[in-house]
Amino acid sequence: MAQFKNYIGGKWQDARSGQEFDRRNPATGEVIGTYTRSDARDVDDAVAAAAKAFQSWRLYPAPKRGEILYRVGQLLMERKQQLAREMTEEMGKVLTEAGGDVQEGIDMAFYMAGEGRRQWGQTVPAESPNKWAMSVRKPLGVVAAITPWNFPMAIPTWKIMPALVTGNTVVFKPASYTSRMAVRLVEVFEEAGLPAGVLNLVLGSGQDVGDAIVKHPDVALISFTGSTETGTAVNVEAARRLKRVSLELGGKNAIIVMEDADINNAVDGILWSAFGTSGQRCTAASRVIAHRQISDELTSRLAERAGGMRLGSGLDATTDVGPVVSQSQLERVHAYIAVGKNEGAELAVGGEIATQGELARGHFHQPTVFGNVRADMRIAQEEIFGPVTAVIPVSDMDEAVAVANNVQYGLSAAIYTRDVNRAFRAMQDIYTGILYVNAGTIGAEIQLPFGGTKATGNGHREAGQAALDVVTEWQSIYVDYSGRLQRAQID
Question: In angstroms, rounded to a whole number, what is the distance separating the alpha carbons of residues 262 and 399?
């Protein structure tokens, strides 16, 4: 059986506790590896290694940092198929989606490698003669990357790549469910020539490892992706210590379908957005806001298509929907079926845990569609994080926008319409970090900012140029070459 260890100061090592934990394939129940179980002592070691490495890494020429990231991207490309397969075994998503997850990491490596030769500052006119004024980016120090299990390659690279290329060092704490993918990513960095201590990996639970990282005095930034509840707790603890925090949290994303929409295109987009990754995406479409003229037809067509989706192992090319990640997650998703029924929503299809044949070995839930849902129902307000979506009928564009905005989250939204005026209304009035027109709610590209409004986060963004603002400080510099005292105008 494979055994996976921490990576601290350039060395693979067991946790100080000597304890381990197992991870099972969520589709089959088979054990796929054992992992060292860390605690605060290992966090102390990792942060110390990162702090020591920072003193030299911050002075390492940024273009050379970028070259290392290029090599990381190349190695990920070479190993894409194997990494995708291991990801599917570890967390369940179908193989093609796992390949897309790895591709996101490749794209981020190449994109942020280019920042080794950019990281633009500003030069601006000074208010006095013979004086130069400019700004530059400075790294923060030790950055903590605390990542979830649903995108075990993409999300870590969103956090690690910008941090490294700007001169920070990193302590990486992955979700326990996907520790093997974290080890594989760090192995690639090691092979690409990243100096010892610049990237450190600590495996273990949020309680034993995550809390220690958040409270550690030498961690300058905590970059966290996960639940809103946990993110709020992280924010409170960090605030006590004046730490910088970047949070990417929950979502309750809506697809608006107006009566003039291409229904075929909308159905395809909804199915992909609602049931891709078994609905376990922060951008998943768990609400469909449909004009009353077409809501019944849309619900019927969604139910017919969802009912025909094949459940199974993500390694099987004929599988449409893989397992959810764990038994506890399966129980959480299924509990919302009773909630929806009790609130008066109409179950159009699904609603059951799948236990037929080989499916009984894993954590499978039928793709589920509720119809005639009211906007104030719990299934229309709370993040389910599973293969469940709710169709909410509305009378017009104004009501559609109001319903879309009337949740605590604001990550992603979409509208299907042939009316350009409605499309621009949506761009103007829907308050989310991401908006799609005539496409589903998932599929972000790494060259634009990723993140949301309201309870989805705390205002920071990942990916794109915006990611650099999270992992750097601005320094304004003035050079006076007049040879005499020149007071600023305020003086």
Answer: 20
Number of H helices, E strands in the chain: 14, 22
Who contacts 297 (Cβ-Cβ below 8 Å, separation ≥6)?
A: 263
Q: Which tokens in the block code for residue 42? A: 């290992």
What's 263-307 look like in SS3? HHHHHHHHHHHHHHHHHCCCCCEEEEEEEHHHHHHHHHHHHHHHH
- Determine whether 282 is an active site residue: yes
Query: Could you give the domains of the chain?
Result: 3-249+457-476 (3.40.605.10), 253-437 (3.40.309.10)
Alpha-carbon distance 441 to 393, whole Å?
Answer: 19
**pLDDT value of residue 356:** 94
Distance (Å, whole) CA 403 – CA 374: 10
Q: What is the pLDDT of residues 330-380, one digit of tens each?
A: 999 999 999 999 999 999 999 999 999 999 999 999 999 999 999 999 999
Q: Are 430 and 289 in contact (CB under 8 A)?
A: no
Give the DSSP letter of residue 279: G
Active site residue 358: no
- Among residues 121, 166, 109, the alpha carbon closest in space to that of 143 is found at 166
Choose the catalytic residue: 89, 90, 104, 282: 282
Which position has the token pair 């994080």? 385
89, 97, 115, 248: the catalytic one is: 248
Token pair, residue 461, equals: 């963004």
pLDDT digits (tens, 9 = 90+) for 417-440: 999 999 999 999 999 999 999 999
List, in sequence order, every residue forming a beta bridge with 54; answer none if it has no partner: none
Q: Which residue has the tokens 């990513």?
A: 185
Q: Report the C-alpha gap between 169 and 53 in whole angstroms.
A: 7
pLDDT the model gives residue 314: 97
Instruction: For residue 35, give the 3-state DSSP assignment.
Output: strand
